[in-house]
């Protein structure tokens, strides 16, 4: 019978790293690297001149931006000028007179299309003609042309970096790579899944996807070549599978699983109303991490005891300038208000590494884009203007609620002292202007996320009001395995004995010095680790808000003395595999 015939599966399955849980089903939106995707529309004849003028104004704005960047470079160390100067000169030249500018202008007139589309078409035409010439020099120049074209398109859209605003509902974003800033722009109501070729489990792109609750699979070899625009795609963020053009049976199975997961979520949401107390009666503090302001309501709904980590970077992403102090102040004040007196731990800017922002890094961009360079507090101590500006804003906002200040990427006692001095200077300058600051000034704590800081935590505890262990970076730096690189994802393991012992050491130092210690890396939100962390003496965890109910469920199932004994046993082990087994066996008991 015809109905019994199995139709050969058209579906293709790719496998990568499931980094954000859940099942996303939707239509592929393939993002070509290089040129930003913009809408295309026709321009009526009577508006052609206005469109050409709009284009010329955008060229002028982009030229000014490049000239501004060039001028900044001149004041900095010669090395940067040597590296970046010629590139910016080439950009400037191209924005003054080039085939790109002339060609795009001509296309607006002859093809009657909008300026953004004209720029893209001209770039495609240039790429085509370069390809025919097969010349390595020209291939390199094409990158420069694309760089200028992107700048022009952003300038034209007058909404810098808004490249995803036109996505239809139920899109699955497919790309070579998404930066954390790209991910921050995705609208979770429109995007039902993400999959990329590059990216590791604990990079900031993965964290951002989890924060937005978008099912995501990163580090999938071949996925960009294997999916076409418009294909139906299932992203299984738990198993790490990406299924392209699924057959009916697969689709039905995944839809059923999605319904089941929604039901589990509803059941878990009841956890909100019960306290986070272990079986033996020990109270545990569960706070939330915040990456983007849209999460703050969820933080409140999930019954978090406060914000244990406010990653302030979001306010500085996706823009070419530094936001005015009043704008940052208002954003912070609004978040603090939602928390209704619960603690809000504001981390000062942690730019650098994969969270690169040209406007902030300025002349230090080369060093700051390295994970071992001027990241976090290191960059801010070079940019005292930025450091003091942040303290001014946070101190102003701190008068409206319960604020703690946290310093990222601390390595030495001297860095903490200098940061404190900058905070005092900021407080003085506010007072001189008659602006209120909290008395006493807010507590200043530090992230323990560099192995040296964990090893020397006793000294750092003397100058810090609290510790927050950043296990994401601590794991990366201890194991020399980049958290955002899928090629070393198998080495990136928080259960390596070196990482476990460093976490323990930092927690012990805090206890000894009598200061609070929490952990705000991603393992805080994974119930697999709850027993270990509590057993190591960390009774304060901060995580992505949606993870709170499951972790609370784990806390309530645990017996703390038993978890402590198991953690002690784990500290004696040297083999990560054995540690994982000991933890999983223990977890199976409760
Ligand atoms: C960490 O490193 O663990 C951390 C919480 O900070 P981030 O992930 O922002 O680097
Ligand atoms: Mg970190």
The count of helical stretches stands at 24
Task: Decide which structural class fits the backbone.
Answer: alpha/beta
Note the main sheet: 8 strands, mixed
Tell me the β content: 5-15%
How would you write the strand order of the largest sheet?
Answer: 1-8-7-3-4-5-6-2
CATH structural fold name of the largest domain: TIM Barrel
The percent range for helix content is: 40-55%
**CATH homologous superfamily of the largest domain, by name?**
Phosphoenolpyruvate-binding domains
- Radius of gyration, CA atoms, in whole angstroms: 26 Å
Let me know the average pLDDT. 90
**Bound compounds:** phosphoenolpyruvate, magnesium ion
Extract low-pLDDT stretches: 1-9
Count of all domains: 3
CATH architecture of the largest domain: Alpha-Beta Barrel
3D shape: globular
Q: What is the β-strand count?
A: 16
Distance between the termini: 51 Å
Q: Regarding CATH, which class of the largest domain? A: Alpha Beta
């Amino acid at each position: 019978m015809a109905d019994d015939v199995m139709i050969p599966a058209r579906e293709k399955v790719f496998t990568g790293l499931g980094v954000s849980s859940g099942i996303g089903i939707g239509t592929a939106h393939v993002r070509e690297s290089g040129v930003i995707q913009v809408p295309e529309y026709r321009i009526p004849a009577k508006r052609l001149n206005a469109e050409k003028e709009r284009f010329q104004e955008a060229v002028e704005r982009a030229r000014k931006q490049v000239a501004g960047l060039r001028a900044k470079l001149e004041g900095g160390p010669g090395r940067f000028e040597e590296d970046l100067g010629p590139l910016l000169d080439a950009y400037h030249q191209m924005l003054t007179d080039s085939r790109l500018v002339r060609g795009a202008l001509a296309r607006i007139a002859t093809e009657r299309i909008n300026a953004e589309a004209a720029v893209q078409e001209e770039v495609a035409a240039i790429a085509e003609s370069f390809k025919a010439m097969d010349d390595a020099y020209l291939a390199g120049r094409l990158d420069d042309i694309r760089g200028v074209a992107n700048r022009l398109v952003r300038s034209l859209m007058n909404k810098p970096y808004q490249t995803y605003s036109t996505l239809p509902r139920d899109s699955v974003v497919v790309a070579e790579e998404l930066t954390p800033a790209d991910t921050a722009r995705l609208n979770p109501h429109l995007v039902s899944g993400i999959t990329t070729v590059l990216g590791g489990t604990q990079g900031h792109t993965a964290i951002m996807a989890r924060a937005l609750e978008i099912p995501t699979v990163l580090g999938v070899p071949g996925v960009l070549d294997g999916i076409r625009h418009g294909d139906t795609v299932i992203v299984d963020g738990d198993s790490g599978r990406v299924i392209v053009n699924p057959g009916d049976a697969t689709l039905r199975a995944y839809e059923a699983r999605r319904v089941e997961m929604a039901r589990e979520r509803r059941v878990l949401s009841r956890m909100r109303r019960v306290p986070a107390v272990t079986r033996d009666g020990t109270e545990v503090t569960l706070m939330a991490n915040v990456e983007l302001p849209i999460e703050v309501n969820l933080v409140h709904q999930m019954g978090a005891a406060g914000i244990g980590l406010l990653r302030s970077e979001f306010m500085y992403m996706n823009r070419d300038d530094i936001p005015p102090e009043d704008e940052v102040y208002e954003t912070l004040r609004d978040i603090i208000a939602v928390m209704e007196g619960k603690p809000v731990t504001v981390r000062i800017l942690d730019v650098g590494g994969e969270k690169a922002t040209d406007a902030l890094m300025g002349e230090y961009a080369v060093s700051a884009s390295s994970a071992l360079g001027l990241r976090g507090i290191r960059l801010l101590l070079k940019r005292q203007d930025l450091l003091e500006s942040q303290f001014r804003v946070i101190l102003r906002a701190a008068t409206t609620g319960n604020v703690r200040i946290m310093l990222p990427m601390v390595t030495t006692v001297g860095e903490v002292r200098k940061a404190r001095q900058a905070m005092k200077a900021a407080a003085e300058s506010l007072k001189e202007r008659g602006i209120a600051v909290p008395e006493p000034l807010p507590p200043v704590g530090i992230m323990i996320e560099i192995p040296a800081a964990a090893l020397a935590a006793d000294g750092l505890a003397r100058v810090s009001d609290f510790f927050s262990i950043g296990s994401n970076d601590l794991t990366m730096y201890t194991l020399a395995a980049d958290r955002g690189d899928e090629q070393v994802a198998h080495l990136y393991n928080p259960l390596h004995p070196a990482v476990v012992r460093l976490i323990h050491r930092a927690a012990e130092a805090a206890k000894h010095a009598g200061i609070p210690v929490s952990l705000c890396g991603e393992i805080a939100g994974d119930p697999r680790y709850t027993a270990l962390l509590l057993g190591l003496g960390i009774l304060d965890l901060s995580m992505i808000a949606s993870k709170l109910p499951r972790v609370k469920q784990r806390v309530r199932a645990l017996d703390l003395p038993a978890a402590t004994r198991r953690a002690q046993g784990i500290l004696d082990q040297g083999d990560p595999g054995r540690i994982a087994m000991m933890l999983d066996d223990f977890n199976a008991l409760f």
